[in-house]
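From the shared-data thread, chain only:
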Amino acid sequence: MSVDEEIARFDWPRVRTYLGYAEMVPGALRGLATAADDREAAHFGAWIERILLSEAGPCEGCAPVATVIVAALPEMTPAGHAAALDVLSLIASAEISGPAHEQIGTVDVAEIRRAVATGFPHYLAVLRSDSSPTAELHSCVDLLDVLAFYDRSLAPAAITALKAVRTNDHAPDLTVAIDNTLTDLADS
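Structure, as tokens:
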């Protein structure tokens, strides 16, 4: 499915975000998918994060946005891809932390994580690639940590992929992140 076909699946003027209804979100998703450089991608990624997440937790728009981003990952520019993985890791790790009256719309964290988890094979492929940028590897490690922690059926594949990546020559901070994730998954 193309980005536009995936966007068309949702009734954005009825989806609620922290800035109001989400009729402006499709433009931001297209911008993220086609971002020409890191600066543009960071702009769209930060904007999407700001409208979806707050101190109180995720909003109703998280699941549809995650669904579109995951579907668009294979079509994204390299800059958009890196920013999208970062946004997905933030969405996946979001927890409801405020009272119910602070939540925007109907929020189901399990539904949000299921939407992000549909990209699990993609995250594994990024980890297995020899050419993935370090920022993307960090985001995918974070994604595997959260997704496999909450859905134990994903843990064996996550652990296998992380152990394989762990043996490659990566930056020390990535190695620490992988070790911490492996510990999280072994202890849960």
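The first strand starts at residue 16 and ends at 17.
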